[in-house]
Amino acid sequence: MDQCNTNNPTNLPCPSSLGTEQQVSTSSSTTQLGINEILFKNGKVRFVMGGNRTDLLSSNGIKKLDRIEVYRKEGSEYFLIKSYHFVTSYFRNYDNSADSYLRLDHVEVKDGSGTFINRHSFSYHTSTIAWSRPDSGKARDFFGFYNGKVSNTTLIPSTTIQYQPNVQTAPSNITIGSADRSTDTTFLKNGVLKRITFPTMGYTEFDFEPHRYNEGGVTTYVPGLRVKKITTFDGAKLISKAYKYGSSENGLGHKNFDLRGFYFYSEQLIRNACSLIPCDREYRSRMFFSNSVIGPGYEDAPIVYSIATEYQNGTNANGRTVFEFDNNTLIGDPLFSVPYSNKTFRNSMSWARGKLTRKTVYNSEGTQVAQTNVSYTNYGDQTSNIGQSGYQWIVGRWGGYLYVNCGNSVDGKEINLMNLAKTTGNYKETTRSETLNFSGVAQTTTTTKAFNPTYLQPTYEEQIVSSNPEIVRTSFRYPFDIVNTSSTYTGLPDALKQMLLKNMLAYPVEQYTWVKPTSGSTQQIVGGQVTEYDLIPGTNFYQSKYLHLLEVASLGSSYTTVQVSGSSALTRDGRYKLRLTMDSYDTRGNLLQYSLSDGQIKSFLYAYEGQYAVAEATNSPGSTLAFTSFETNEKGGWTYSGPESRVMQGEGKTGNSVYLLNNGDITKAYKGAYKLSLWVRKNTSSSASMTINGVDYGSQVGTSWKLIEVTGSGGTITISGSNTMVDELRVHAAAGMATSFTILPMVGILTQLDSKNLGTYYRYDPFGRLETVRNEDGHLLNLYDYIYIKP
Length: 791
Prior knowledge:
Helix content: under 10%
Strand content: over 45%
Low-confidence stretches: 396-410
């Protein structure tokens, strides 16, 4: 408190304090909350906790994560596929006396039976943590990191300020605070990852160095690390990449913070009065404060590098690659300072930084062999007021007494408010030029893009190759180019409007390509595609419906883009031909059938809760295709009342389930000529029976799997019998062909039966890796073996 002026020293004396220091400590505690399971269509992930963490208060009962288990779902049952076990220990205290911070040492992977598969191991630059000292609370740099200055008794940095006890005395300089808040690079690697060792016993090792910048001609360090070198060993060969930073590799970056963001002061002008006349006092009060946690002094990184150089194997023997960002300049953060304080508002431009604008490759002789230049366009650039700052201002000067208004003593005050503006935008790459030099001959490929400024979707992409005297451009048009949300439509135009309302922005309706000589102005249309969308009945999903291809007999410059005709139709260039129709989808959005313009039809059938296609047929409409391997209860178009029955691995024709005819008939109503196929086998030593549409096939049911094929001409298909197992039951149009699949969810295809019912069988090890591929006769087609060096 200073700059005091009083006209009644007896009753309102000037305060004589040079300042008092107060410290506030905060603490927090928590109870542990976490996800137990994540369930999804064909499996689940389970998080299993271990014992209590010993680096935290045991009374809190905070546990460490022991493992993550991954399950697949078959029917209503879950089966463990693999698990990831976290082997942990602790960084030790600064004097190696106690557990300080939890540390991950290994991730061990086990298969569904608990067999060890492989391990990833992690090592660190230190085994102790220096900042766990009990006297480290004030040993912090401005960024909140430990700096070893344990003699600090305060967090207020040593600062020289001007002090004037009263208005009659001359000002002098005094020092407040005594803390050394500088950064000490000695401690920056504490607890930092050094090496990842892979199951093959190869490894990747990381070396780091501190950030640094120039401050008034002095090299200054800040917390945080940058990559100095990455070394990779694949078991036979050692490869490294070394990095140097700054212009001319001087190691300096751009300062991207302001110390005013880490400690503050506020200033007040205080006035008092008493009942005597005269009895007025005025003085200045300043408060300085700081804390030990990371402050708001920067965003994304305290130091920004606009240029970095990469050396293969750490030397120039293999040349070097230079990366330049943001045209080798710093995009700084504008700062707004609140008057009468050092409080600031940072208009962060982190969203605009970090764009690669040039990459140059040099050989060992320093000759440029390749260069890529990239430019960007800022779409959606805007500045918005997001808040306000304010201060209270006392109007006028000291006059020996408070201001008088109508005989009453008053203070004249006003509140000054200022808007805090935030700049935002979205940079998109719009030009990329890539130049390669071969024996002194340069070839440049330039790609140019443009984007819709509102929806940020690409509107065209153009390419020019210096050795080719032609420009090739592909243009794109979207629902927002064709319809608007304020108009009323029906049919296909309405589908585009609804897509727009649902923010389905990245679905091109039209794309077409033209070429023209670089020296000419006449473009030649060479191709195009129009995709029309429609609503899937019974859902609110919009999917592609029609695909039209532009077919040009001869090149021409004229072209008509897609437009709305009236309010219910779309018009296209007359040279477009309908080539593909997506006839139907299921309620999950899976394609059930498409047809080509030559009349060919392809249909699909899904199971495993719609996640996987289990059958596909050619020239058999979706309504005529039915299939089940009884792996799920979705039945695949068949009707039966009994349950699916699980069998031991290898007992089914395919998969792990069959159907027992003892549990009831299997039926399906069918229109038209069909081809029915199924595999059957006895399930007991007793005699078996089976009829299809009343025809006896019991004599063909034996102790091994037998293929039964039947043709028919409509009506109800009925399969009956006893002591008979059925698998791979499918029917399709007599003129068509079908292929069916059995899936091991989250692993892969288990079996594939082609149109002749000849199978390909895939087997996986307990970890889910493909192990063998065999044909219908059991002959081995492929064998895969996986070997890891034992840790």
